[in-house]
Amino acid sequence: MVRRMLPRLLLPCLLLSLLLPLACSKPQAEPASQPAAGGGVGVAAGGGDNAAPAAAAPASEAAPAAAAPATAAAPAGAVIATQDTNWPGVVAEVTELRRKGNTLTAKVRLRNGSTDNQQVEVRFDEVYLMDAANAKKYEVLRDEKGAYIADLRSGWNDRWYDTLKPADAHLLWIKFPAPPPEVTAITIQLPNTPPFEDLAIQDG
Fold first, then answer.
1. Residue 96 above 50 pLDDT?
2. For the domain 81-203, what is the CATH code?
C-alpha cells in the first residue's frame, strides 16, 4: 500500500520544485533607450525662453595687420625749406637734397614774387654744403675740364644767371660729394641768401 501511495506523494513535490524557481525569479528591467542623435536633449535645449543660446560660430581668422607705412618721401617739387634772398622779392626754395651713391644733388627754386624784373646770378664757387657737427665743407663738384657740375648758363662753366620776370621761377640743380651715411642733416649755402641750416638728407 505504501508503494502505491509513494508516487502520489512525490508528484506534488516534484511539481512544486519546478514551479518555485519560476515564481521567485524577477524579470530584468529593460535598459533605458539611448536618445537619438539630435533628438530630445537638443530639442529641449533649444525650446523655451530660458534655453541656453547656441554656441557662436568661431570667429574667422583676423587678417594680418597691414604694415605701417613708411614715412612718405616729399613729392617731387615739394618745398623742404624757404629763405628770402637779397634779390628784391626773390625767394629761394630747397625742393630736394638727395644722396645717392657718392653724390648729393641739391635742387633750389628761385621765384620772383615782386612786380619787377630781377637779375639773378648764382656763382657756384660761392655755393657749398657745411657739416657743422664734423666741421666739414663740401664744394660743388667739377668735371675733368674744371666746369662745375650744376645748372650752368650756356657759355659759362662757373655760374647761372638770368632775368626773372614777375611770377617767374627757375629750378637750379647742383651736385656735391655725398657726406658719409652717418651724416643725416646738413646746411646749404647760396650767394645772397641766408644759410639753409640742418636740412634732412634724403637717401635713395
1. yes
2. 2.60.40
Per the confidence metrics, is the pTM higher than 0.70?
no
Is the distance from CB of 101 to CB of 178 less than 8 angstroms? Answer: yes
> Sorting pLDDT into bands at 50, 70 and 90, what band is 44?
very low
Three-state DSSP class for 128? strand
Residue found under cell 630781377: 118
Asked if 117 and 163 count as a contact pair (C-beta separation under 8 A), the reply is yes
Residue 126: name the closest of 108, 110, 140, 107 by CA.
Answer: 140
How confident is the model over 128-147, as pLDDT tens digits?
999 999 999 999 999 999 99
What are the residue boundaries of the structural domains of the chain, listed by start? Answer: 81-203
- Give me the sheet containing 128-131, strands edge to edge: 136-139, 128-131, 185-189, 196-200
Residue bearing the bigger pLDDT, 93 or 32: 93
- Give DSSP secondary structure letters for 29-72: PPPPPPPPTTSHHHHHHHSSTTPPPPPPPPPPPPPPPPPPPPPP
